[in-house]
Automatic annotation (TrEMBL):
It comes from Cereibacter johrii. PANTHER family: FMN-DEPENDENT NADH-AZOREDUCTASE 1 (PTHR43741), FMN-DEPENDENT NADH:QUINONE OXIDOREDUCTASE (PTHR43741:SF2). The keyword Oxidoreductase applies. The gene is azoR. Homodimer. This is FMN dependent NADH:quinone oxidoreductase. The lineage of its organism: Bacteria, Pseudomonadati, Pseudomonadota, Alphaproteobacteria, Rhodobacterales.
Length: 196
């Protein structure tokens, strides 16, 4: 059975264009994978930022963790397990001030973990999360996807590739303030053209 992980990150809740777009992508995928298991995580509802306590918890042997470390590691491992179990990731990337929102960066910090999603070798880093596909819903008021102003899409593609996810498609509803209807029409066409 195919497992689809949907990651939303906009602080706008149901009014978010990125949330509408991740739903459209999910609907498109379910046309081909009607029995897929869908797991959803809304990062705007909160995700721990990594810090010294997080680092000490996830890299301490389970049998040596304190009660606090066990709780921190349990939450971190749950985020990692969702990604490991997913065949397809649908990721909302709303652009805030030319970059990804802080909560999406925190999610990335959780999943880019040495020994879990990548390892260092004599020839460089090797991603361990291979065989997965990611579809990114890129939305912005004014930043064009792939432009010199866009510090979000290239970063996310780099991080996903670093952990082994190299099959990445972007669906963009960008430059919304310059024509929301046109931007959504382009995005809808891109969703329809996705190889599900």
């Amino acid at each position: 059975m195919t497992t689809i992980l949907r990651i939303d990150s906009s602080i706008k809740g149901e009014a978010a264009v990125s949330r509408r777009l991740t739903q459209r992508i999910l609907d498109r995928l379910l046309e081909t994978h009607p029995d897929a298991k869908v797991v959803s995580r809304d990062l705007a509802q909160g995700i721990r930022q990594i810090d010294g306590s997080w680092l000490g918890s996830v890299f301490t042997a389970p049998e040596q963790r304190t009660a606090d470390q066990q709780e921190i590691a349990r939450d971190a491992d749950a985020v990692m397990a969702e990604v490991k179990e997913a065949d397809i990731l649908v990721i909302a990337l709303p652009v805030y001030n030319f970059a990804a929102p802080a909560q999406l960066k925190s999610w990335v910090d959780h999943i880019a973990r040495r020994g879990e999603s990548f390892v260092y070798t004599e020839t460089g880093p090797v991603g361990l999360l291979t065989g997965k596909r990611a579809i990114v819903a890129f939305t912005s008021d004014g930043t064009p996807l792939g432009s010199e102003l866009d510090h979000a899409s290239g970063w996310l593609r780099q991080v996903l590739g670093f952990v082994g996810i190299t099959d990445v498609d972007f669906v963009a509803a960008d430059r919304m303030v310059f024509g929301a209807d046109e931007a959504m029409a382009r995005a809808e066409a891109a969703v329809a053209a996705l190889a599900a």
